[in-house]
Amino acid sequence: MSRLDQVTFDAESSLATVGSGQTWSNVYESLDRYNVTIVGGRVLDVVTANGSMINANATSNPDLWWALKGGSNNFGVVTSFTLNTYPIHTVWGGIKEYALEYLPDIMAAMYIYQSNPNKDAYANLMLQAFTTNSSVGVVLNMVYLKPVENPPAFEPFYQFPTIDDTTKLQTLTEMISGQRVPNIPRWDWHATSFEPDADLYQEIANITLHAPELKQIESLTSGSLALGLQPISTNAVLAGQARGGNPLGLRSVNQTWFVLDVGWNDASGDAIAHNATASMRAKVEAASKKHNKYVEYIFMNDASHSQDVIEHYGEASVEKLKAVERKYDPTSAFHRWVPGGFKVPE
């Protein structure tokens, strides 16, 4: 797949074509010279199980196009994407880092940020907290897709003192390249979703700061845990539905895609790391149900191998995905012979 690495841009149509073997960092850098970036796919080139090369878009094989939006590796091999571009180059953004003791305060600010009825579409962020490493603490990855410094959209967070702040005007590519990735060899992720709620957020802060499972993770060599909150607005859900339907079964509400990232050093810690983090995720999920804020969706990119991702799309989506699989892969070749990924339920 790595040889499918083309990146082309057509200025007249404002479309970019990207090979499926490319990396996002290379794609962003390649498009920088045109002062554009990409959001969302319009056309997919796909090789199906019988070796046919077909085009999937809103009018050609639209059922396959719909299914590939969250269907994992069940239907074919995508060889290239044709993507919409937008004239975004210089942005304001970076990382604000806070002491771990501010986690409850930052969580409260996150609720205020998400509750704004006039959500600024140019503002986005992700909150992370490294609850096993107080030297890192709470990290906000922030971006404002205009060259505006300290935009009002992030006002709820400005009141807290930072221990590090890299936010500035820079290209989107520069901002993305400044993200920090810990040098730990083994990782697992556990995901759940819920609607924002002030009381729920405080309970999550308490769970992730004080759960006894943290001791199990800390007992591992390089044992580390980080929580992540990715806010998804109602408008973002509606925009996604307008560009390819709703195979994910998302409800049109403000929501948070939550993840626990666990890292450790060697295979001897696999079971402890997985089970301890799964237990913490279950506690967060139980809290969201207690507050009547649970959202029946698991973000595939952040899910653990043990989670039933596609089943959480809802019965209607699952049945339609099964029908698409029967049509384009009647022998279930990708289901039976391609390892990894999340499979459409049988």
User: How large is the count of helical segments?
Assistant: 10
| Main beta-sheet annotation | 9 strands, antiparallel
The beta-strand count equals 14
Instruction: Show unreliable segments.
Output: none
Q: What order do the helices and strands follow?
A: EEHEEHEEHEEEEHEHHEHEHEHH
Q: Quote the beta fraction.
A: 25-35%
Mean pLDDT comes to: 95
Q: How helix-rich are the residues, as a percent range?
A: 25-40%
Q: What integer value in Å does the Rg equal?
A: 21 Å
Distance between the ends: 28 Å
Q: What's the overall geometry?
A: globular
**Protein structure class:** alpha+beta
Topology:
Layout: E1 7-10, E2 15-19, H1 24-32, E3 37-47, E4 53-56, H2 62-67, E5 77-86, E6 90-98, H3 103-115, E7 123-130, E8 137-144, E9 164-165, E10 168-171, H4 172-177, E11 186-194, H5 198-210, H6 213-218, E12 224-232, H7 234-242, E13 255-264, H8 270-290, E14 294-295, H9 315-328, H10 333-337
Antiparallel strand pairs: 1-2, 2-5, 3-4, 3-5, 6-8, 6-9, 6-10, 7-8, 7-12, 11-13, 11-14, 12-13
Helix pairs in contact: 3-5, 5-8
Task: Give an overview in words.
29% of the residues lie in helices and 27% in strands. It contains ten helices and 14 strands. Strands 6, 7, 8, 9, 10, 11, 12, 13 and 14 form a nine-stranded antiparallel beta sheet that branches. It has a five-stranded antiparallel beta sheet with strand order 1-2-5-3-4. Helix 3 runs antiparallel to helix 5 and helix 5 packs antiparallel against helix 8. The longest helix has 21 residues, at 270-290. It is globular, with a radius of gyration of 21 Å. The protein starts with 6 loop residues before the first strand and ends in a 9-residue tail after the last helix.
